[in-house]
Amino acid sequence: MHDEPGPIGQSMKRIDAHGKVTGVALYPGDLNVPDQLYMKVLFAERSHARITAIDTSRAEAYPGVAAVFTAKDVPVNEYGLSIPDQPVLCGPGRADIVRCTMDQVALVVAESAKIAREAAALIDVTYEDLPAVFDPFAAMADGAPQLHAHADHNILTHYRIRKGDMDAGWAQADVIVEGMYTTAWQEHAYLQPEAGLSYIDDEGRVTVVVAGQWTHEDREQIAHALDLPEEQVRVIYPAIGGAFGGREDMSVQIILALAAWKLKRPVKIIWSREESIKGHHKRHPVTLKAKWGATREGKLVAAQVEVVGDAGAYAYTSTKVLGNANFVCAGPYDIPNLHVDTYAVYTNNLPSGAFRGFGGPQGAFAAEGQMNKLAEALGIDPVSLRLKNMLREGSLSAVGTPLPGGVSLPQVVEACGRASYWAQQGEHWQRKPTAPPHDPARRRGVGIACALKNVGFSFGAAEQCWATVELHGSAEIEEVVLRHAGADVGQGAHTAMLQMVAEAVGVPAEKVRLVVSDTAETDNSGSASASRLTYMTGNAIRGAVELALAGWQREERPAVGRYRYRAPKTTPYDPETGQSMPNFAYGYVAQAVEVEVDIETGLIDIVNVVSANDVGKAINPQQVRGQIEGAVVQAQGYAIMEDFQMRAGRVLTERLSTYLIPTVMDIPGAVQSVILEYPDPRGPWGARGMGEMPFLPLAPAIAAAVHDATGVWFDSIPLTPARVVEKLRAAGLGG
After folding, report:
1. In the chain, which residues have pLDDT < 70?
2. Which of 306, 397, 539, 580 is most buried when burial is the number of CB atoms within 10 A of its CB?
3. Would you list the DSSP string of 100-159?
């Protein structure tokens, strides 16, 4: 054991850094084995149609083709993370209906990628087009085409919150503000497109080496589709080039396994960027209609919100994403009278699914927009107004129950204000003056917003995480091995795991070795999502280390501790009132933004972002700053640049030349990370999850700053130059 400060709280270098910057690290697309075949997917490219026939004869006869697979070759032709409502392959029979352009129809496996691509073009598919619907409001109307038998009026789910007495609330309101907020699709744009390699391993298991976010969930869905016992399927994650929620649902996992299982030869696939953009889900576009009321003193008394999210053709995680939006659309505020209706609606667009923030950014855009409008209408500083209404320790949330212990919202908002553009005078806050821009065509403005973000799965989902720790050596511990399935999708999770193991055992980090992300070597960890991995993994590691150290004291060599951490219980929404204990932990964030708006071109430059985040305990401060800066830039793209376009279910922005994401030339002039450490009572070493938090408030803070600069409210994102110019011209600015 050592007496020096432990690894936790230290900015230890990432354990994967050298391999990634030198190119030594292997991603799924880098992997090759002898005798491998190559796969090409034939996508439907139809929004809604019935397949009446598939003729694969020309493709099968093409020289170098090993096999062509269609729906008839899939034993259990269904999958889905929450509902198994999507076919693996669409084709005549039970899965003859195509519901969106990304539906997969056939797989060609050949001796080269070129042959597979050429042969796929020879498959003849006969379609009978069906009526389609692309707008969620139209999809809910009487007479709209019905996409799934289980969803009347195409409504996948409808959540309600009914709290207090709305008539009494409106009667108390001296000021009422209303707004219609719309958010758009967003493409994950991770660097590594979908790719993978499948083969039969030495023990006869169908093995899929791929990038994902939950190895054991991938294994479960593969085994289900192939009608195999789970122990006959193995999933391994090598280096993963980004995820952000975009790898939670299946892409190539099942089809790779199918081909290797049928052919008993290794099979490889790499999607092009265009296939990636057209072939995986997107962030939900959401429309939020909000009406909020407050007294003249600035006390919120009533709020009514309708939330409608476009789920696309299949469920994916829409029930959970819209469940989160249902909660966050009321903001982190104490509102005594609240009425919310939230709908996830099937359409013939690409499916929507998990994306960093998971419904939170959409809900926060409306909630914080309403608060900033109320601040202006009441003549109250926006920081003061927030602090007057902020949820605190013991106050009741939107769903009628208190937040878990360790609520730090007021401290976070105050820290953000002090670090940015506000001065505090007792309970009153006042904006400090900022320098005007030099260019007469530019206007400068400042905005602020805040949010809370759940840590872990919500609404009654069973939450657990396994860890196994082995202590090797004789008289002293010479090596510590952690076996853990958790995915490092680029966020540095494996480095944090190593630090937590070393801290818990009391050894230098150099003595720790990780065995990770292989279902044959690890137990189920749950997913790398919902800002949960540090919280869940840390608690599992602490339990496993305690068991292993007890074995070491009994002179067991090696001493092994295997432990499953179960998170505190949550409960689902009451179907009528929404009352629940939705989450067991939260992170809290506030951001202030300074922008310059060119009123001639509509371009918005972000001068500075101050992001205050309560992370409970910064396991690795450098990685925390990286998460903050990365989230800010990704949210910047969401707010002002990324304009994903679908028309009649077809993707128009299928390349990174037409779907613009921020580059190093676009990022904010400065991002100031204010890292606060108010311990979560149940988090490991007090840590809260924080990977999603800094995404949530940026878009509404930018909208507030643009309003401060121009006097014009923008309630729809992204704020592309053309849209900004149009509204500014309508307001008499520029031109």
Report:
1. 1-4
2. 397
3. STT-EEEEEEESSHHHHHHHHTT-EEEEEE------HHHHTSTTPPP--TTSGGGEEEEE
